[in-house]
């Protein structure tokens, strides 16, 4: 199930005050830091903008629909000064398509800053979708009242040569969905690799630097531009005096996020209420990071047991100066969560914790057959004016499938029908339309499609092909006579010429219309 919106409301912060921008002043004092690998898309912008170490690019090359708009607020971060909104209420979704490497892992982040761009008093509520998975609802009302931005994150794996990030209206959406920024950041294959990303995505709940204060830690401290929020409670804090090597930790946390820690005195248990929000009942991925802040020596050992909500998480953990990470790949949590660290009876110092991450595990929302996705994408490119929602997964989520496209309930999902009659479409049909081997009916009547009729010999399930009232030319493809299930073939009122294949003239049970052509 997608993340409930109440679960995401605490995940906001004022981007203008965070590390990606405030650390830009240090650029002259330190060597230039290379930009983290990935795409940083400034939605609605018409030119590149540099914010700290990161260059943000306009979104025109990633989306073909929607309107750009400026946000009229003083002293606003450039990335929040524009947005793209989507007033077309007939479209089932509005999708960005970003190049990716199939099988690679990515951090996906969407950022929203309303700023009253549409003159309304409150931002709309809408859904966001990654590939075919319904990720979450987007409700930025609370942060908008505070003049702040909202961000959402997930870790997901690319299933093809691109990833789509889409917005979609809900029944309660009252105005145009919008987006301010979109990021797709490359992660290492070793990161979060105990999750089966063919079946699940990880939706970020929070990422905390324990004992830290001040600004959010991100790039360039975190080379993957993850956000680590400072976290303190009533417990004592300490700071590490040992060198910290992120490569020594699974998931490669930044050294700065491990620099501080929450601790307690010798012999005492350490209780930490974390994360700082109530969780809905769900399955979670939790990673906890520990590092002894003292200078390494034969005596600098710190052993304790770790439990979460009264259940063992790890026993006999030794938080050495080199550091250690422990995790739960799947843990059921709900409500307030308590981490308890219980020291070994002979340990000379109290337990501590340096950093923590928690993600909700969200099942992937199914998958459309790769061959069907490729064929439908080819068709979208071959049409000069496809429907505005023809991007992203053609079938999923089911309530947000492409206009005119009918799909199966199988796994993987198959494209079964195409109904785009009388929509003023122009362009041609690609040869790859024949790869839609699960197709039952195609209705493209009353458009302005031209070019030859492609080979349909692989679409043996096809029962009806309506291409009448277009501008198709050339001969009738003889492959149509070999379609054993074909019952209706409407080719009338085109520019076809030549002989009608004998296999069509004699095909039993076939209703064929060919008038209005130059056929024999």
Automatic annotation (TrEMBL):
Signal peptide boundaries: 1-24
Keyword Nucleotide-binding applies: no
Membrane-spanning segments: none
Membrane topology field: Single-pass membrane protein
Keyword Cytoplasm part of the UniProt annotation: no
Pfam entry (one): Malectin_like
Name of the protein in question: Malectin-like domain-containing protein
């Amino acid at each position: 199930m997608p993340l409930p919106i109440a679960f995401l409301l605490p995940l906001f912060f004022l981007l203008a005050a965070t590390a990606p921008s405030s650390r830009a002043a240090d650029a002259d004092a330190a060597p230039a830091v290379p930009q983290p690998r990935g795409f940083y898309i400034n939605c609605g912008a018409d030119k590149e903008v540099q914010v700290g170490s990161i260059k943000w690019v306009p979104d025109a090359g990633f989306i073909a629909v929607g309107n750009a708009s400026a946000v009229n607020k003083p002293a606003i971060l450039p990335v929040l000064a524009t947005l793209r909104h989507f007033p077309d209420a007939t479209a089932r979704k509005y999708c960005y398509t970003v190049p990716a490497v199939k099988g690679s892992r990515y951090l996906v982040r969407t950022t929203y800053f309303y700023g009253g761009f549409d003159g309304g008093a409150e931002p709309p509520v809408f859904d966001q979708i990654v590939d075919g998975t319904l990720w979450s609802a987007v409700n930025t009302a609370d942060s908008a009242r505070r003049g702040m931005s909202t961000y959402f994150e997930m870790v997901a794996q690319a299933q093809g040569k691109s990833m789509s990030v889409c917005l979609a209206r809900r029944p309660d959406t009252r105005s145009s969905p919008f987006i301010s920024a979109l990021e797709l950041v490359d992660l290492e294959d070793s990161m979060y690799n105990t999750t089966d990303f063919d079946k699940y995505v990880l939706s970020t709940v929070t990422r905390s630097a324990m004992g830290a204060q001040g600004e959010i830690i991100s790039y360039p401290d975190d080379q993957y531009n993850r956000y680590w929020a400072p976290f303190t409670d009533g417990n004592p804090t300490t700071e590490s005096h040992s060198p910290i090597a992120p490569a020594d930790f699974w998931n490669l946390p930044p050294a700065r996020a491990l620099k501080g820690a929450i601790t307690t005195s010798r012999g005492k248990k350490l209780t930490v209420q974390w994360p700082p929000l109530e969780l809905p009942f769900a399955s979670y991925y939790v990673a906890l990071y520990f590092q002894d802040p003292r200078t390494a020596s034969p005596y600098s050992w710190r052993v304790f047991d770790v439990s979460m909500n009264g259940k063992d998480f790890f026993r006999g953990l030794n938080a050495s100066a080199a550091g250690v990470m422990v995790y739960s790949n799947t843990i059921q949590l709900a409500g307030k969560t308590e981490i308890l660290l219980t020291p070994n009876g002979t340990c000379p110092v109290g337990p501590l914790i340096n950093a923590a991450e928690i993600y909700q595990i969200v099942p992937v929302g199914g998958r459309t057959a790769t061959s069907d996705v490729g064929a439908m994408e080819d068709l979208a490119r071959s049409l000069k004016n496809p429907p505005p929602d023809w991007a992203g997964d053609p079938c999923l989520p089911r309530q947000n499938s492409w206009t005119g496209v009918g799909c199966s309930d199988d796994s993987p999902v198959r494209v079964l029908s195409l109904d785009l009659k009388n929509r003023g479409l122009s362009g041609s049909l690609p040869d790859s339309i024949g790869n839609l081997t699960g197709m039952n009916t195609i209705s493209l009547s009353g458009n302005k499609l031209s070019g030859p009729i492609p080979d349909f010999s692989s679409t043996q399930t096809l029962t009806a092909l309506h291409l009448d009232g277009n501008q198709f030319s050339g001969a009738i493809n003889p492959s149509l006579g070999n379609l054993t299930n074909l019952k209706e073939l409407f080719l009338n009122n085109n520019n076809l010429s030549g002989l009608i294949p004998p296999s069509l003239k004699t095909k039993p049970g076939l209703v064929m219309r060919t008038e209005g052509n130059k056929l024999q």
